[in-house]
Amino acid sequence: MLKSTALVILILISLHSQAQHGGYTLSNHPETFRKSFSEATASIESIQSGFSQEKTLTMLSEKMNSTGKFWYKKKDKLRMEYIQPYPYLMILNGGKIFVKDGQKENQFSANSSKIFQQVNRILIDCVSGNMLNNPDFQARIYENAGSFLIEFQPVAKNLKELYKNINIVIDKKEYTATVVEMIEVSGDKTIIRFQNKVLNASIPDSVFNIP
Amino acid sequence: MHPFPIRFLIFLSLFFLNISCNQYRHLKRSPPEENCIEKFKPAFQREEYKISVDVIGKHISGLLLIKYMPDSSTRIVFTNEMGFSFFDFGFPGNNGFEVYHIVPQMNKTALIKTLRKDFELIMFRNRDRNKSYDLADSSIIYHAYPQEKGVNYYITDEPCSRLIKMQRSSNKKPIMEALFYDYTPGQAPDSISIRHLNFKFSISLKKLMPLASQ
């Protein structure tokens, strides 16, 4: 009786984890993943890629699409340049954030706002692989044949008010993020897919210059 | 000294202040002209706008989606470029309003009320014909729709062939002005500007063309 109850519970847990992230099961070796992941990301100096972004408004059955280019350089430099639907530039460099929207330029310190500091860290950590060490989130690791999916649930109160969870898909070959999925408390979600990734190309510091 | 002259002077100055402050006083009141404003009402089906908000020295931008829903309500959603939702407002029926979502940082009664009234003006909502009236000068007609507080004005030329601008006002002077640009009546305007006159707060909207993949 006990054995069959345990079996049913195991099946239910397995079904639950599959239902949460279709095609993925909870990893049996999260520590092995953490070790391999941190070794692999230690060797990544820079990432250059294109991206497409899809925002889903669940209650309105609507999708809003954007595309752009992306540059990351160790350890805290990031440039996201939106091309469509209109040009928009964001640079994170050290503790500073620079935004250019048409003719308007804005620069501010990430430290001036805790929420900016946290969101800033999420972005950098998602691509650099440091997200697993971010104390604002609790991680669960899932996997399938070709990739890992890390589900991050916010622990910090102010992030809990904004995000239900953030999922990052890591491909098993390069150990880099291919998809970042941000799910808001309202159920709306934003999926960023990285394409044509180039690892460790030489990117001049001027790409991340904040004027 | 007898207090009368001082009281009289105060009364007189208040009287003239009142006259000079009331910017609609010189206009001549007349019964409303039926069917003038209705033809200028914009039709928002599913429009994506680039939104820029400037408020007391701060600049925020993003995407604003205005969508007419199957239940006849209109939804307005503001997200930043990275997809993060700032607010999701619903405008059901003739004058209903619902906040479906708003980030804690923007969840302030005064801000929500201001945004609600601004959007209601540009969507031509809350127009009770029984309370409406016209104010006219030589060449312009102010089509007035009294609100719970203040009045919404839709300002047209005399023959009612052109919508010049829209105003939200207190009982005496305008507090906000809105304009449509590149606008064919009955469609969604290409650009919209909203400018508050009593504090530094402006919103500009520019319609975006759908992406090829959409």
What does this structure look like?
With 211 residues, chain A is an alpha+beta fold. Chain A has one domain (23-202): outer membrane lipoprotein receptor (LolB), chain A. Chain A contains four helices and twelve strands. A twelve-stranded antiparallel beta sheet of chain A has the order 1-8-9-10-11-12-2-3-4-5-6-7, with helices on both faces. In chain A, a hairpin with a 5-residue loop joins strand 10 and strand 11. Residues 10-18 of chain A have low confidence and may be disordered. By secondary structure, chain B is mainly beta. Chain B has one domain: outer membrane lipoprotein receptor (LolB), chain A. Chain B has helices at residues 4-21, 109-122; strands spanning 28-30, 46-55, 58-68, 74-79, 85-91, 98-102, 133-136, 140-146, 151-157, 163-169, 174-181, 191-196, 201-207. In chain B, a hairpin with a 4-residue loop joins strand 8 (140-146) and strand 9 (151-157). The A-B interface holds A 53, 55, 57, 59-60, 62-67, 80, 82, 84-86, 88, 90, 101-102, 104, 106, 115, 158, 161-162, 182, 184, 186, 188, 190, 192 and B 46, 48, 50, 52, 59, 61, 63, 65, 67, 69, 75, 77, 79, 81-85, 88, 100-101, 103-105, 208-209, 211, 213-214.
Summing up helix and strand content along with how strands pair, one would put the structural category of chain B as mainly beta
State which percent range the strand residues of chain A make up: over 45%
Oligomeric composition of the shown chains:
heterodimer
Mean pLDDT of chain A: 85
Largest sheet of chain A: 12 strands, antiparallel
Secondary-structure element order of chain A, as H and E? HEHEEEEEEHEEHEEE
| Largest interface (C-beta under 8 Å) | A-B, 32 and 29 residues
Kindly state the number of beta strands of chain B.
Answer: 13
| CATH domain fold name of chain B | outer membrane lipoprotein receptor (LolB), chain A
Number of helices of chain B: 2
Net shape of chain A: globular
Provide the spatial order of strands within the biggest beta sheet of chain A. 1-8-9-10-11-12-2-3-4-5-6-7
Strand order of the largest sheet of chain B: 1-7-8-9-10-11-12-13-2-3-4-5-6
